[in-house]
Amino acid sequence: MFMRTKLLASQRVATRCDGLGSRLPGARIIMAGMTQSQQHRGLRPLAIVVAAVAVVTIVVAVALVMTQRNAASKPTTTQTTAFPTVKFGTTVVTEAEFRQALKTQRTAAVSHFKQQYDVDLNDEDADWTKTYGSGDERTTPVAWLVRQTVETLRTRHAAYLVGESIGDVPNDSYDAIVARMNAANKANARKRSDGKIVYGRSTYDIDVYLDYELTALKNSYIDNSENPGMTLTDADVQAYYDAHDWTVEGVDGKAPLADVKANVKVQLREERYREIVAKKAATIDVSGLPWKRLTAYTRAWLG
Asked: What is residue 31's predicted lDDT score, i.e. its pLDDT?
């Protein structure tokens, strides 16, 4: 009886050891006859492998993060060709305004490159990115078009700023110009519906309205001798008359000043007005404009 009880106790101990060994691999190694130092030597390579895997995992994770950051920071085609922010001073040049000027200046670009380089930019296979000219004249049609468009807008805004200075317009905003055009079209439509006479154009598109308003601004400025630069002395008139040829129908040679004095004054004032607008345009700094993005946008617009 005593022997049987002792045997059962030994079996229970062995069973517990087997269960512990199944849960702890290290225990199995010890029970297999390995010494403690042998166990440590066996675990050392495993620790190195685990550490190496951890390092590789960290490196891969960092590489993935950097790749994602680079992809996020790199502009897409849509971002590159999107219309950038363009300002003349505090006035924002809208995409609609830039496109309107682009359309008008595209014709100028076609004419310029045909005359200078005998290139037909209206051809289906025309390359607007090809370089022409040499030295300071070296350029591409698309770059020339962008520069010409910006200069056109610069002069236009200058004319509106001059008009603003004498109270003819509230500002040089394109949206305000469009609003005035729409108001004029609505007013003329009401007149027609009421059976009233509409003098001049009854409807305007933006190109025609801009020409109309810029001409009105010029005439308003030069017709008032009190506006800056519009006061003319007799000496001013005489000097301008002497510097130019003047003709009158039925008169041989140069017409007398008395016969053309009114025209002399008008042309002198118009010339001074252009100089005033040019000086104002020169104050509009365009050196910081996003030229590369404007060129990319224009290339996409050209198709």
From this structure: 40
CB 89 within 8 A of CB 141: no
* 30 pLDDT higher than 90: no
CA distance 236 to 240: 6
Distance of alpha carbon 48 from alpha carbon 283, whole angstroms: 70
Q: Secondary structure of 81-112 in the HEC alphabet?
A: HCCCCCEECCEECCHHHHHHHHHHHHHHHHHH
Handedness of CA 140, 141, 146, 151 (dihedral sign): positive
Residue type, 214: L
CA distance 92 to 79: 19
Which residues partner with 87 through β-bridges? 92
The predicted structure's pLDDT at residue 72: 44
Is the pLDDT score of 208 beyond 90?
Answer: yes
The pTM assigned to this predicted structure is 0.74
Tokens of 157: 């805004």
To the nearest whole number, what is the mean pLDDT of the chain? 84
CA angle 289, 290, 294 (to 5 degrees): 115
Q: Which of 201, 209, 200 has its CA nearest to residue 179?
A: 209
Calculate the alpha carbon distances from 193 to 30, 184, 201, 203, 204 in Å: 107, 14, 15, 13, 17
3-state secondary structure of 133: coil
